[in-house]
Amino acid sequence: MKDKIYVLGGAQTDFERNWSKEGKGVIALLREVIDDGLKNINLDYYDIIKLNNQGRVACFVGNFIGEYYINQGHLGALLTEVHPAFYGVPSARYEAACASGSVALDAAMTKIRANDYDLVLVIGWELMKTVDSKLCGDYLGRAALYDEEAAGIDYPFPNLFGRLADETIKKYQLEEERYLQNLAKVSTKNYKNAKKNPNAQTKKWFMNEEQASLRGTVTNSLIGGKLGISDCSQVTDGAAFVALASEKLINEYYGRDNFPIVKGWGHRVAPMRFDTKMQDSAGSKYLLPWTRQAVVDAYNKANMTIHDIDFFETHDCFTSSEYAAISAFGITEPGSEYDAIESGLTDSNGDKPINPSGGLIGCGHPVGATGVRMFLDLYKQVTGKAVGYQLNKADNGMMLNIGGSATTNYVFIVGNE
Amino acid sequence: MKDKIYVLGGAQTDFERNWSKEGKGVIALLREVIDDGLKNINLDYYDIIKLNNQGRVACFVGNFIGEYYINQGHLGALLTEVHPAFYGVPSARYEAACASGSVALDAAMTKIRANDYDLVLVIGWELMKTVDSKLCGDYLGRAALYDEEAAGIDYPFPNLFGRLADETIKKYQLEEERYLQNLAKVSTKNYKNAKKNPNAQTKKWFMNEEQASLRGTVTNSLIGGKLGISDCSQVTDGAAFVALASEKLINEYYGRDNFPIVKGWGHRVAPMRFDTKMQDSAGSKYLLPWTRQAVVDAYNKANMTIHDIDFFETHDCFTSSEYAAISAFGITEPGSEYDAIESGLTDSNGDKPINPSGGLIGCGHPVGATGVRMFLDLYKQVTGKAVGYQLNKADNGMMLNIGGSATTNYVFIVGNE
Question: What tens digit of pLDDT does each residue of A173-183 get?
């Protein structure tokens, strides 16, 4: 891409925290992540005020459904409750279910490329622990076609991604036991990776391959089709913050240009309804062809291939979605994803690590925050700042953030110049 | 602005319609407005498919709170239920309460300027008549700081804009009776204008200045502070569609370049809480200085002044907001808005017509659609297509779309080259 978007850095809250139990609300959450983020990029609120007086800064908020979890909409403007520095700063909220953070990132980086602002602050967040898990599942059902796919169903998304597992087995004529064992390996890897990530939700939780395989037992009950609790990301509170800047701003404020840049992106939206998605993909070798297309678009924009990507952060809302992402990324041909898993290729010490952060299953999945958290993890890895879970080789990373049942697909490539 | 954004046209549903009573839902609403809009710009669904195969088209959806009204989120992806042509087309939803349509417009036009897409389709919509007006008011309360400003209050926004009326009287030491009479004139004008707009909600409703002045009576009850029902926009179902294009696309598809263009824009967000907003503006001669700043930003980007603008579409969610907009636009000094109203300057046959469409009070206010509807009305006027309510002189128009209690402020200028 010809217009450079520099990634200054950011911050993430500890996804282990339950803000409701702490007696803290959204303003505390946002204040904390923005305070940390500004500190990490060596800016303060006075810089925001100064840049705003010059009309050079704006904020982009990713959130799925704060309207339900905390009874609040108009979520861009909510930043004015966090700090007076945001008075007058352009802001808005961006939504595509669990890919909301990526919509905010996309809008923000486009503003840099159009020379509208020199600094854009992207904040993704969700407070989900304000309600019990059943109600939480119903709220999330509004990311699917609610009346048809979610209303009256206890856990609509585990159900849909359980069906994705069934369809994967069917399309590629996989041996069910081997496939499920592969999903257990995905889950185990992501829990294991999370143990090294100080901000991961599950860093103190127990998981091993035996436990992940014992689906349908008391400690790993079935939650959607063949999928167990171990295949599933958990309800999470959290926020992530990323700052992007123009070349002008980094020259002016930092006097150096060795920041990572955004090298490519892709955005494709598949049919919303799961059944339609499957009908639409019947003639494709990919189960999720639009997911693949978003990846291809990002490679093309970056003029890169799979060989240039050192690691991946992907949307493992369920193990079945990470499984499908392996071929979408081009790591294997579709139908041969098990090769990458069984050979250890996607482990953190493999050649194509996936989710060194722990991903959604290990690190956590505060839905509106996830895209921004993934993007921040690309930044951390390529700058050697992924303390505890740093990869050996990490010059270029790709992320895939999805909304709904792989309906919205957003891909970004971040790397060093 | 150096990068040209061409306005191809669009469509609006008849805001008089109650889609729930017709037994129709959101898919029917969207299908109808998109069908009409594509026809009006001489494109069809095959063009969308073709452009999408080339990665040149995307959709931007403005909606405030479909999560409540129709139990549905992920509102960009919902377009795939409207027509298979949208399979694979990038789409997302954009939100800033009643300014949601403008967030979508802004993101869409920025994509054109960054050369990401050549055609962007912007669809604003809200179906509000799925619930009764009291519940509707509570839902809308999520555009304010809900816990502090809306929870447990019957009609939070009439209350907040009633307070805006009180603050206007106080700040400019106005005679209350005269001010309220001015608001009655605003209301009467907008109802009158709406009678000529075939898509207006109130085209068959009765209103005159006497009726608008008799607040606190059976037929015009008080709804928020000193404001009566006649000062208030009504619950509306509706959608609006606008298509924007790059220079490349219009050359390729239309072989002419005499489309209107976007000449300027402004986006500023004031403190969310009404009390804070008033404290923040205490030192300013404007009651809503960030609203004014958004207007100034748009003038500066367009290299224009008030003298270059022939007409305005503004956010008269309440008469008190249109009153405040008069000085924000620069039509009068702040505190002298009554001059413009009493002299007839803002009537459709005046020199600075405001809301020739009827505005939110006359035309209707399906909240997520409003910004897009205003923008479409700018297009219609500058191209001579505002059948029934066409102004004599309309080369350049400005719109102001606000979210919350004048929290989010979006301004666009559309005009002929």
Answer: 999 999 999 99
DSSP A21: T
Domain for residue B262, yes or no? no
Is the ipTM here above 0.95? yes
CATH of the domain at A98: 3.40.47.10
Asked if A113 and B114 touch (Cβ cutoff 8 Å), the reply is yes
B135/A contact by beta carbon, under 8 A = no
pLDDT lower than 70: segments of chain A: 1-2
Reported residue count of chain B is 417
Residue B155 makes CB contacts below 8 A (sequence gap 6+) with B134, B137, B223, B224
> For residues A142 and A146, what is the distance between their CA atoms, to the nearest angstrom?
5
C-beta separation of B370 from B227 below 8 A? no
Split into its structural domains, chain B has a count of 1
Whether B1 shows a pLDDT value over 70: the answer reads no
Half-sphere exposure of A195 (CA within 13 A, CB side): 11
Residues in contact with B25: Cβ distance below 8 Å, sequence separation at least 6, in sequence order: B19, B70, B127
Q: Note whether A230 contacts B: Cβ–Cβ < 8 A.
A: no
CB nearest B88 (choices: A95, A145, A290): A290
Indicate the DSSP class of residue B84. Answer: G
What is the phi-psi region of residue B237: left when phi exceeds 0, alpha when psi lies from -120 to 50, beta otherwise? beta
Q: Can you tell me whether residue B21 is helix, strand or coil?
A: coil
Q: For the segment B95-118, what is each residue's pLDDT rounded down to a tens digit?
A: 999 999 999 999 999 999 999 999
Nearest to B90 among A80, A269, A403 (CB): A269
Contact B80 A144 (CB under 8 A): no
Cβ distance B330 to B291 under 8 Å?
A: no
User: What tokens appear for A78 in the block?
Assistant: 């909510």
pLDDT at B94 over 90: yes
In a domain, A13, yes or no: yes
| Interface membership of B83 toward A (CB under 8 Å) | no
Report how far apart, in Å, the C-alpha atoms of B387 and of each of A158, B230, B379 are. Answer: 52, 26, 12
B266-294: string of b/e by CB count within 10 Å (b at 16+)? bbbbbbbbbebbbebbeeeebbbbbbbbb
Task: Say if B83 falls within a structural domain.
Answer: yes
Angstrom CA distances, A182 to A219, A306, A328, B172, B222, stand at 19, 22, 17, 71, 65
Per-residue pLDDT at B257: 87
Side-chain-facing half-sphere of B72: CA atoms under 13 Å: 25
Residue B114: which domain range? 6-131+236-254
Inform me whether the C-beta atom of residue B279 falls under 8 Å from chain A C-beta atoms: no
Q: Are strands B222-224 and B238-245 parallel, antiparallel or unpaired?
A: unpaired
Angle in degrees, CA B249, B376, B408, rounded to 5: 105
- Environment class of residue A14 by beta-carbon count within 10 Å: exposed (0-12), middle (13-18) or buried (19+)? middle
B79 to each of B31, B92, B237, B252, how far by Cα in Å?
9, 10, 18, 26
**Residue A356 maps to a domain:** no
**Token digits for A101?**
């953070």
d(CA B330, CA B314) in angstroms, rounded, equals 13
Q: Which residues contact A126 (CB under 8 A, 6 or more apart)?
A: A63, A64, A65, A66, A69, A236, A237, A238, A366, A367, A368, A369
Paired sense of beta strands A119-126 and A57-62, if any: parallel
CA A18, A19, A20 angle in degrees (round to 5)?
95
Kindly write down the DSSP assignment for every residue of A389-406, as one continuous string.
Answer: T--S--SEEEEEEEETTT
For CA atoms B143, B148, B149, B153, the dihedral sign is positive
How do beta strands B91-95 and B57-62 pair? parallel
**Contact (CB, 8 A) for B180 and B159:** no
Give me the amino acid identity at A159: N
Q: Which two tokens stand for residue B7?
A: 């306005």
